[in-house]
Amino acid sequence: MDGRTEVGGLVTANPVWVGSSELTMTREGLIACVDAGAGAVVAKSVNESAAARRQLDIADYAFVSGDGRVRPAGSARPGDGLLNRSGLAQVDLDDWLDILAAGAGHGAARGCPVIGSITLADAGAAARIGRAMAEVVPAVELNIGAPHGREASAVRQLTEVDAVHDAVRTVRAAVDVPLFVKLPGQASDVVALARAARSAGADAVGLVGRYPGFLPDLEGGAALGSWGAWSSPGCLPMSLYWVGKTYAALDVPLIGTNGARTVTDVLRFLAAGARAVEVVTALWIGGPAVLTGLVAGVRAYLGGGAEEFVGSALARTRSYADVPPVRPPAWLPYTARWSGR
Ligand SMILES: Cc1cc2nc3c(=O)[nH]c(=O)nc-3n(C[C@H](O)[C@H](O)[C@H](O)COP(=O)(O)O)c2cc1C
Asked: In what residue span(s) does the Dihydroorotate dehydrogenase catalytic domain sit (predicted)?
């Protein structure tokens, strides 16, 4: 079995998936991720908007050290955060379908599904694109959580239940392969969004999209010179919160993303309830070897299938009301040492 996992009707050989990004925007990029051993590969998102494609012209990437310094170009290190602007693939739909078909064919021959991705602009257009993609890929991911949606109308970030339900229902009706819906982490109730996506027909839900970010440089400007999208190891517990809460509340397969850099991080996503984990920033920093290492480490830990491990952290996780009183540690400000007693 070796880490085999099933997500909303799609079986993959291991739970370490490559998430959508510029790394998966070309045929070569898709093939490199397949060959590095990914369980599945999500292709770069497309949509119908010319503005979303133009937005790639202003893409920029700032890697940020743990103590907040922007690294010089080309010197990112494991554990860095990434603040960036990004756009969508600059390719016509027909050409993109050819690339997807080539990637999917390469993946299928090696047991690695290559998944098409749409970042929402108009739901009707997303449905048309999804229908065409379903002819060449075994599953489609609909991203309705893009943080860039807060900065530009070429992509949309949905944070309300009704909007999520309507968009997913429209795309679901057109797509006859498994449909995964990637949600934002920035909403007051992400579990409610997941419920809406599921009731509208999503086969699995991806949790959670990156957060908006802003990093002043203290010289009158800011990193990238704009707002951006932020991923970092510090995002991990925030992502896991929504994965765990959704796993506890709903019966829907979950795909984790946002903050997994190490084998332990991937396992934590699984323990919180994800059946697969989409990784991106760690691969930008460390290349395909990182992916190969993650897959080997996760497989070695799991031994057999991922199934029994998924959600294992929830059995002993209590609500505040059920936690028995604990002794405050001596170092807390309200204990003797700090109050001078
Ligand atoms: C440069 C970059 C481009 C991305 N582009 C897309 C995209 O087109 N569609 C999408 O659904 N997610 C996109 N993402 C989000 C990733 O798929 C992933 O969910 C996110 O980076 C969190 O995972 P990480 O912490 O492993 O980076 C992008 C992320 C990065 C860093």
From this structure: 77-298
CATH number, domain containing residue 59: 3.20.20.70
Phi, psi of 143 (to 5 degrees): -95, 115
- Nearest-angstrom CA–CA distance, 177 and 205: 15
- CB of 24 shorter than 6 A to ligand 1: no
Three-state DSSP state, 20: coil
Q: How far apart are the C-alpha atoms of 170 and 55, rounded to whole Å?
A: 25
Distances (CA, A) of 285 to 122, 149, 234, 280: 33, 25, 16, 9
Residue whose tokens read 């709903």: 250
CA gap 291, 38 in Å, rounded: 7
CA distances from 3 to 169, 229, 244, 303, 339 (A): 32, 31, 20, 7, 52
Torsion sign (Cα): 208, 210, 212, 213: positive
Nearest CA among 266, 250, 247 for reference residue 311: 247
CA 1 to ligand 1 center in whole angstroms: 28
Give the dihedral of Cα atoms 310, 254, 7, 204; nearest 10 deg: 160
Which one, of 83, 57, 56, lies nearest residue 70 by Cα? 83
Q: What is the DSSP letter of 148?
A: G
User: Structure tokens of 44?
Assistant: 């770069």
Q: Give the residue numbers spanning the domain of 166.
A: 5-339
Residue 292, strand partner residues: none
Structural Rg of the chain based on CA atoms: 20
- Encode pLDDT of 203-250 as tens digits: 999 999 999 999 999 999 999 999 999 999 999 999 999 999 999 999
Nearest residue to 205 via CA among 183, 174, 237, 230: 183
Q: pLDDT tens-digit profile of 141-187?
A: 999 999 988 888 889 999 999 999 999 999 999 999 999 999 999 99
Q: Whose CA is nearest to atom 20 of ligand 1?
A: 258
49 C-beta closer than 6 A to ligand 1 = no
Ligand 1 contact, 280 CB (< 6 A): yes
Q: Per the structure, how many domains does the chain have?
A: 1
> Are the beta carbons of 11 and 5 closer than 8 angstroms?
yes
| Whether the predicted pLDDT of 341 surpasses 70 | no
